[in-house]
Amino acid sequence: MNIIIKNATMKDLRKVQELNLKLFEKEHKEYDSLLNLNWTFGEIGTKYYKDRISKDDGCVLVAITDNKIVGYLCGGLIKTQEYRNLPIVAELENTFVLNKFRSKDIGKKLYNKFIEWCKTKNVGKVKVEASAQNELAIKFYRNNNFKDYSLVLEADL
């Protein structure tokens, strides 16, 4: 299977949003019932993806096979916390690969291309957030040099 990883363009916007909605639906069902399933195609979600595709501080990558987008990764430069002496920081904000194409190194290829992008921006630290119950994602990130830094706990009232 030949996989091409490329920067997304505005032509790819709708497909990226469709994949993001699939990610939201999966996360909503399995980990976080509070996710807003209307966000992706709403005004704010659409602006988010347009900005990440078109602005210099954003990176949206797509994985293509047989002329079809089967996965994506979205991230970008972020503001750092003023209480920490951090270098330039990027965040891998969301990524998704269709079920049929998982375990074929597509996620790894997207990640590697994102890291290449980060290096062109002189990024010194990359962060990612994952649902605590999403063991596969956490394993993937740990296998790619991410270390546990903080733990966010929530309580329903």
Order of helices and strands: EHHEEEHEH
CATH superfamily: Gcn5-related N-acetyltransferase (GNAT)
Percent of residues in helices: 25-40%
Task: Specify the CATH architecture.
Answer: 3-Layer(aba) Sandwich
Regarding CATH, which class?
A: Alpha Beta
Number of DSSP helical runs: 4
Q: Distance N terminus to C terminus?
A: 49 Å
- Which structural class matches the secondary elements? alpha+beta
**Integer average pLDDT:** 94
Order the strands across the largest sheet as they lie in space. 1-2-3-4-5
DSSP strand tally? 5
Radius of gyration over all CA atoms, rounded = 16 Å
| Unreliable parts | none
Short description:
This protein is of the alpha+beta class and 157 residues long.
Q: In words, what does this structure look like?
A:
- With 157 residues, this protein is α+β, with helices and mostly antiparallel strands.
- The protein has a single domain (4-143), classed as 3-Layer(aba) Sandwich (Aminopeptidase).
- The protein contains 4 helices and 5 strands.
- The protein has helices at residues 13-30, 43-54, 106-120, 135-143; strands spanning 4-7, 58-65, 68-78, 89-97, 125-128.
- It has a 5-stranded mixed sheet with strand order 1-2-3-4-5, with helices on both faces.
- α3 (106-120) links the parallel β4 and β5 (125-128).
- The mean pLDDT is 94.
List the main descriptive attributes of the protein structure presented here.
single chain, 157 residues, alpha+beta, Aminopeptidase, 4 helices
